Amino acid sequence: MRHRLTGGAAAAIIALALASCSTSEAIPPEDGGTYETLGDLKESVEVAGWRCPELVLHNDAKYSASSGSCGEGLSLAVYANDASLESQLDFWKPIGQFPINVGRNWTVVSVDPKLIQRKLGGAVIYTGQ
């Protein structure tokens, strides 16, 4: 007795095989994408591996729509538009030398910018240069 695979069954087997080869880690957008709220950014940072049990709003990022910190070493901000983000980066430029993760409308200052970039995308820039 011969067994034949129907076209649908063959397609299902191929799809399962391809799915098993894919990685479970999502690839972030190269430009870092955008976030509607600071809470959305916080959530993504937590998924990336940072703990942020309490986000303290402070608006220290002068030109941000909203900013806050998750303790020492982790500050988050979202911006209303490109001009606000650019103004903030210009403001930070002469300050010391520290890394800033930059997305389309957000910044994250942390001690591990490569982790944030790997998980959220965007660029890492350094102040003081």
Describe the structure.
It is a single chain. The chain is built from 4 helices and 6 strands. The chain has 129 residues and is of the alpha+beta class. It has a 6-stranded antiparallel β-sheet, covered by helices on one side.
State the separation between the terminal residues, measured CA to CA.
75 Å
The amount of helix comes to 25-40%
Order of helices and strands: HHEEEHEEHE
Q: What would you call the structural class?
A: alpha+beta
Radius of gyration: 20 Å
Number of helices in the DSSP assignment: 4
Strand percentage, roughly?
Answer: 15-25%
How many distinct beta strands? 6
Strand count, sense and barrel status of the largest sheet are: 6 strands, antiparallel
Overall outline: globular
Which segments are poorly predicted (pLDDT under 50) over 5 or more consecutive residues? 7-23
Mean pLDDT, to the nearest integer, reads 83
Query: Strand order across the biggest sheet?
Result: 1-2-3-5-4-6
Short description:
With 129 residues, the protein is α+β, with helices and mostly antiparallel strands. It is 34% helix and 19% strand.
